[in-house]
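dude i think i finally got it to work??
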Amino acid sequence: MYIASTVADDALCRLAEAALGEGFCFVSPTPATQGRVNARSENALAHDLRGVLGWSRPFAETVVPPDIFALMRTAGILARDGEHWRSRVRLSLVSGLAFFHSAYPTTASDAVFFGPDTYRFARAIAHWIERCPVLPRRVVDVGCGAGPGAIIAARALPEAEVLGVDINPAALALTRVNARLAGVTVAVCLGDLLNDLSGVFDLIVANPPYLVDPAARAYRHGGGELGADLSRRIVAAACARLAPGGTLLLYTGAAIIDGRDPFREGATALLDAAGLDWTYEEVDPDVFGEELAEASYVNAERIAAVVLIATKNSRPTG
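look at this
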């Protein structure tokens, strides 16, 4: 994984600028799609920058321009693969912004995941901010990963204080680089949920892991019987830490069992008890369908991607 330092950060930023100058563009697919595409015989090796920095394929040094190869070396993201090289990170574009994140496959315990969920999460934040009558002044992205939530918010809310918190130092290192690439300021904090932060927030955004992962990798494992434990913990934390009029925007996944959504039932019970107004929407009814073959999902009929938006009343009730 990426090892942060001032020199490495500088080189990584210059690498992104050089790649974009070469016309680089990549949209991260699901891991299953990336695996299928890379398994094609013609894709055994990278033939261009998209193959190197997007598809995470092994490559010969001559495939990339010399200045880009030198920047990759200085950034510390080159790894040997037999006679070839691999990049330890990928570069993806979201809403015109470039984000570094972990290379495929994301098997390491400190991997920083990025994929279709990220794009839906970013759109949900941008759409909410566009409609918000009172702009938030203090924002936090819980489990920020590569920082897309925090950075999208910071770009749309230039006057706001924006924080990104994660338990993974590698994620915070990439958030810092990606914020610099976007030209925004995001303060990063190592911590669990909101436990290591003070005060209240006008906007809390989160795109937590929501699957059951036998290896319990931080970027993937949501905990609990169906992977929803972390998402429920975020809801509970938001109930206590939202400022009056503040909003939680949670993008997550929910395992559906016999037509029921246990996550929705538990989360909205917490919100109702705390007196928050909420909306709940399935933005994709069927994601990570391959997980249904796992023992943890033996009773699930599908996994839905959902967006929960909950707002604290600006005036006390009762």
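The chain has a mean pLDDT of 95.
im so relieved honestly
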